[in-house]
């Protein structure tokens, strides 16, 4: 069995999926109401932040996704006591944190990118940290050079061995002046989680400012940290001697909300996403409207629907916040196959994020991927050497096919494509979707999708 398939099955098993393959009968619009809970891209980091506290932390609105289970396993391997007082809550007690055996950490190797964020908190508490092989979506190289350079700037010593990376801090960690070569989300979080307990002041330039990072800063402030967010992507962190636990309700998952919005559009449906908020989705909502989608912002969610008029093509450049998030483009591309004319999606964040389009092409979509990107005179985001572009010409009718999920967002787009297609599709490797979409099987059922597990 190849490692991708093994990973997908592991993810699915962690959240109790019956099998790793779905049979989908397309053609029915998705209609109904679903709820999104806390963001995968905040909850997993908030769990790591609990390691910094001297008392227990309570996190609310935690989704049942496999990435949460992976981080829970890693925290438990380090002696954190994790319980769930109520559904959707995690109580994290870090009072007996200890070094885990490498074998326990390695059991989580290749499953998620979060282990890299354990470094700062563990170096503060224990003077050492191990990083196993990292996982996460395979959408390019995903180097960790910014993380390691930042940790070295704080005074960490990095030892690279065949089992992974071992870090020590022989003289403790001290505040540093750091400028990121690119506003990386993970590297910004690395600096925050390390600087809050480092001696002295840290200045971080070219920081990422995604809403999930602002929510992490709010958590750290509740714990006793002093963090100032300045204009122009500058963050100052004044190190403190100790931090306490926090009580926090996680920010909603805007990536999941945007995915269901695109599902409504592509299937000519009508989905109300409870828990979705306008403010964190403004950039997405503008593009959704330009494509011809309709939405109503409600008190406790957003209703996304196809208004019955033809969809229009758009040009989109993915970017760091407040730009159009790279995790939003895959489900949107499915909707763009229904638009009348030629759309272009410039992927500027990752170097290989159009792998999912192969399956859409097999289903009849007219998509051309330009591996070196394409020049465009009307762009907003500066051109990056790693970028690619997809040119989508529609409208096309998709037909059923046998497809294999390559990654989280690509997998969700395959599901939507199969739901819009004429006939029957088989989608294998669906376990990966449980990394970031809570109860997606139940939600599809609620929305009236016609599908079943294959044996
Ligand atoms: C768990 C999580 O929160 N994942 C999100 C996070 O990923 P993640 O934090 O891994 O993404 P980054 O923002 O770090 O990556 C952005 C770019 O920086 C590059 N880079 C990053 C670190 C480094 O040390 N060296 C380097 O070159 C990456 O290869 C990529 O080209 O932000 C991405 C961008 O919004 C989202 O798509 C992911 O959903
Ligand atoms: C790329 C993603 O996540 P990760 O960084 O966890 O692989 C994603 O959520 O689309």
Automatic annotation (TrEMBL):
Presence of the UniProt keyword Endoplasmic reticulum in the record: no
Keyword Iron assigned: no
Residues annotated with 2-(S-cysteinyl)pyruvic acid O-phosphothioketal modification: 137
Ligand binding (phosphoenolpyruvate): 40-41
Stored Pfam families: EPSP_synthase (PF00275)
Binding site for UDP-N-acetyl-alpha-D-glucosamine: 113, 327, 349
Pathway participation: Cell wall biogenesis; peptidoglycan biosynthesis
Gene Ontology molecular function, alphabetical: UDP-N-acetylglucosamine 1-carboxyvinyltransferase activity
Enolpyruvate transferase domain mapped to chain residues: 24-444
Family classification: Belongs to the EPSP synthase family. MurA subfamily.
Function of the molecule: Cell wall formation. Adds enolpyruvyl to UDP-N-acetylglucosamine.
PANTHER family: UDP-N-ACETYLGLUCOSAMINE 1-CARBOXYVINYLTRANSFERASE
UniProt name for this protein: UDP-N-acetylglucosamine 1-carboxyvinyltransferase
Native species: Lysobacter korlensis
């Amino acid at each position: 069995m190849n490692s991708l398939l093994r990973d997908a099955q592991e993810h699915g098993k962690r959240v109790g999926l019956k099998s790793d393959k779905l049979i989908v009968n397309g053609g029915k619009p998705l209609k109904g109401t679903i709820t999104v809970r806390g963001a995968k891209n905040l909850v997993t980091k908030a769990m790591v932040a609990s390691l910094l506290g001297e008392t227990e932390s309570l996190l609310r609105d935690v989704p049942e996704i496999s990435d949460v289970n992976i981080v829970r396993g890693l925290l438990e391997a380090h002696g954190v006591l994790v319980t769930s007082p109520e559904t959707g809550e995690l109580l994290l007690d870090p009072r007996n944190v200890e070094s885990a055996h490498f074998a326990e950490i390695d059991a989580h190797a290749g499953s998620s990118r979060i282990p890299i964020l354990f470094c700062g908190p563990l170096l503060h508490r224990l003077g050492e940290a191990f990083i196993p092989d990292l996982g996460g979506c395979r959408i390019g190289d995903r180097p960790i050079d910014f993380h390691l350079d930042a940790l070295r700037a704080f005074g960490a010593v990095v030892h690279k061995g065949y089992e992974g990376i071992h870090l020590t801090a022989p003289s403790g960690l001290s505040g540093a002046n750091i400028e990121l070569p690119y506003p990386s989300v993970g590297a910004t979080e690395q600096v925050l989680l390390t600087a809050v307990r480092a001696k002295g002041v840290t200045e971080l330039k070219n920081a990422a400012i995604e809403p999930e990072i602002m929510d992490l800063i709010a958590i750290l402030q509740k714990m006793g940290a002093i963090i100032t967010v300045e204009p122009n992507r500058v963050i100052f962190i004044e190190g403190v001697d100790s931090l306490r636990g926090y009580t926090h309700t996680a920010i909603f998952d805007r990536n999941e909300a945007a995915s269901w919005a695109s599902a409504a559009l592509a299937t000519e449906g009508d989905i109300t996403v409870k828990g979705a908020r306008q403010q964190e989705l403004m950039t997405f909502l503008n593009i959704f409207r330009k494509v011809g989608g309709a939405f109503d912002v409600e008190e406790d969610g957003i209703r996304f629907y196809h208004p019955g008029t033809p969809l229009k093509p758009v040009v989109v450049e993915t970017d760091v916040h407040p730009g159009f998030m790279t995790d939003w483009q895959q489900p949107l591309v499915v909707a763009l196959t229904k638009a009348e004319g030629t759309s272009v999606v410039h992927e500027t964040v990752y170097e290989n994020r159009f792998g999912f389009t192969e399956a859409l092409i097999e289903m009849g979509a007219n998509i051309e991927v330009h591996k070196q990107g394409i020049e465009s005179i009307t762009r907003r985001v500066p051109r990056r050497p790693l970028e690619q572009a997809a040119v989508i010409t529609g409208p096309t009718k998709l037909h059923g096919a046998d497809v294999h999920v390559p990654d989280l967002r690509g997998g969700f787009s395959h599901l939507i494509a199969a739901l819009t297609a004429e006939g029957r599709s088989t989608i294998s490797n669906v376990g990966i979707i449980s990394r970031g979409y809570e109860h997606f099987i139940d939600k599809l059922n609620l929305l009236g999708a016609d599908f079943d597990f294959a044996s």
